Amino acid sequence: MLKIRQIQKKKQEEAAAAAREANGNQSPKDAHASSSTSSTARVSAAQLRVQKDLTELDLPKSIKITFPNSNDFFNFNLRIIPQEGYYKNGKFQFKIEINNNFPIDPPKIKCLNKIYHPNIDLDGNICLNILREDWSPVLSLNSVLIGLNFLFLEPNPNDPLNKDAANMLVKDKLQFKRNVENSMRGGYIDSTYYDDVLRY
User: Is the pTM here over 0.70, yes or no?
Assistant: First the structure.
C-alpha cells in the first residue's frame, strides 16, 4: 500500500509539472479554456477515483493484483484462486482496463484463461450484473473484484454466457462438477479444449 501511495504522489507531481509547462506555452485565455474542458475534468476525476479505490482495497488472500506498468493504474492484472467451491485451487487470470470516464463507465474485465463456467464464455467475456445493467458510480473497484470472486464460489446459471455449462449446472450438478474438474486440468469437454489452470 505504501508503494501505491508513493507512485500516486509521483504521478501527481508529474501531472502538476506537465500542467504548468502546458499553461506556460499558452495565452491566459487558452490556458483557461483548456483547463475548463470536460475531458480534462473527467481524466482528473477518473485518476483520483481509481487511486482512492486502490488504496481502499480490502481483498481476501484469494485475490491478487499486479501492475505490469507501475505508472499505469488504469490497466492491471488480477489473479483469483478460489479457496472453496467447484473451482477450488484453480488459478484464474484477468485483465482489467479502466477508461477515463470511470466511474461513470464500469471497468472492462476479461478472463485470460479458457474455462468452463456458466458466466464466462470461451472468449473470456464475463457476465456479471454489476459490470453491466447494475453498474453504479458509487460501486468501488473492491466491490467489483469481490463480485468477480463470488462468481467462482456461486456460479449463476440464470444469467449465462456459456449456456451448455449453465444447463449442466441446473440439470446435473455432479456432472457439472466433473466437467469443471476435467476442464481445470486442461481437458476436453464436447471437443473444446480448456486451459490447465491448476499447474500455474
Answer: yes
